[in-house]
């Protein structure tokens, strides 16, 4: 009887130890976060993306447990790959997250410009917003429509100058796809930012430029600039009459911006971060603030966010292959 009792005690101790070990990870996560969370922003302080993240971050923190604090860290440059690489290299403990557009996740890896292989090398938290990018002409332009611009470009190969913010990014690839589909030769002029593109356009250096919707709203209202086509899949409700590439029979692209984390986050911490982003974007106060900035909020959970990246990754790979950039 004594031996049997001792056996039961040993078994109970083993089971208790196993329960403690099995419960260790959730127990640790219950105290999360215990220190400030660093949110890496692939934009300079005061830039368009930076201003959006600074608007959203306090609401995300408000929806995290334990009086969470979020600290922003600006790492601009190299088509966002500097910032995204910093997220990739961080410990997967929930204390480093980052903002990322589609270019560093679905374009730059194909070009061999990154230490990571693609979006699969990250834990995806949530998509936050989509962006409409328009081809814009000066208000005094001779082109009253995108069709007129395209017809002129076909008759005068290489003469129509189009300003873009960088090479092989989310503006450049849909433009390359358009050139191929429409069998037209456009003269792409590369600038460092949308602000520079807008300045060149207003100064008459180029015939058209591709810029995000929130950059052109004031000039569109004043008549100094005029949007002729939406290059992206999403449409801004404040420019409802501007046709999209899809409306005109061409393939639009997508530009969406989400929150990512290092690969290997504990699932409960990942769920906590995703839930905080979702709750923040559902806040009417934040929604109104983002609407005033012209931000097109579009929450996607991790699975839908991943699906969208996968589809766009395939499209971008095909465009790069068709143009001989990839073999």
Care to give the gist of this entry?
InterPro entries: BUG (IPR005064), Bug_dom1 (IPR042100). With 327 residues, the protein is of the alpha/beta class.
Would you kindly provide a written description of the structure presented here, covering whatever features stand out?
- With 327 residues, the chain is of the alpha/beta class.
- The protein has twelve helices and eleven strands.
- It starts with a helix and ends in a 5-residue tail after the last helix.
- Mean pLDDT is 89; it is low at 1-28.
- InterPro entries: BUG, Bug_dom1.
- Belongs to the UPF0065 (bug) family.
- Keywords: Plasmid, Signal.
Major sheet: order of its strands?
2-1-3-10-4-11
What's the oligomerization state?
single chain
**Tertiary shape:** globular
Number of helical regions: 12
CATH architectural group of the largest domain = 3-Layer(aba) Sandwich
Query: In the CATH hierarchy, what is the class of the largest domain?
Result: Alpha Beta
Portion of residues within helices: 40-55%
C-alpha Rg, in Å?
Answer: 24 Å
How many β-strand stretches? 11
Order of helices and strands: HHEHEHEHEEHEHEHEHEEHHEH
Largest sheet: 6 strands, mixed
CATH homologous superfamily identity of the largest domain:
Bordetella uptake gene, domain 1
How much of the sequence lies in strands comes to 15-25%
Give me the secondary-structure category: alpha/beta
Topology-level CATH name of the largest domain: D-Maltodextrin-Binding Protein, domain 2
Termini separation (Å)? 76 Å
The average pLDDT is: 89
Pfam family, one: TctC
Protein name: Tripartite tricarboxylate transporter substrate binding protein
InterPro entries: BUG, Bug_dom1
Keywords: Plasmid, Signal
């Amino acid at each position: 009887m004594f031996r049997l009792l001792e056996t039961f005690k040993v078994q109970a101790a083993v089971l208790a130890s196993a329960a403690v070990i099995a419960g260790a990870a959730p127990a640790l996560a219950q105290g999360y976060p215990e220190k400030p969370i660093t949110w890496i922003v692939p934009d300079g302080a005061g830039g368009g993306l930076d201003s959006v993240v600074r608007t959203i971050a306090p609401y995300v923190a408000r929806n995290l447990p334990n009086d969470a604090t979020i600290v922003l860290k600006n790492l601009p440059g190299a088509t966002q790959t500097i910032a995204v690489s910093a997220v990739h290299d961080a410990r997967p403990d929930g204390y480093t997250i980052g903002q990322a557009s589609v270019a560093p996740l679905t374009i730059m890896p194909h070009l061999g410009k990154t230490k990571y292989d693609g979006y699969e090398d990250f834990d995806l938290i949530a998509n936050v917003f989509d962006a409409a990018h328009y081809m814009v002409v000066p208000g005094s332009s001779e082109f009253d429509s995108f069709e007129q611009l395209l017809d002129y470009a076909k008759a005068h190969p290489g003469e129509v100058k189009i300003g873009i913010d960088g090479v092989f990014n989310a503006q450049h690839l849909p433009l390359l796809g358009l050139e191929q589909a429409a069998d037209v030769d456009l003269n792409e002029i590369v600038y460092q930012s949308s602000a520079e593109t807008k300045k060149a356009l207003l100064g008459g250096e180029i015939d058209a430029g591709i810029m995000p919707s929130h950059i052109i709203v004031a000039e569109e209202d004043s008549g100094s600039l005029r949007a002729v086509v939406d290059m992206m899949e999403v449409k801004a409700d404040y420019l409802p009459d501007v046709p999209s590439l899809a409306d005109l029979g061409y393939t639009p692209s997508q530009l969406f911006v989400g929150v990512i984390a290092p690969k290997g986050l504990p699932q409960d911490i990942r769920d906590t971060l995703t839930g905080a982003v979702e709750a923040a974007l559902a806040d009417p106060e934040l929604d109104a603030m983002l609407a005033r900035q012209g931000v097109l909020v579009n929450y996607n959970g991790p699975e839908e966010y991943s699906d969208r990246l996968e589809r766009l990754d395939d499209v971008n790979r095909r465009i790069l292959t068709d143009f001989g950039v990839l073999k």
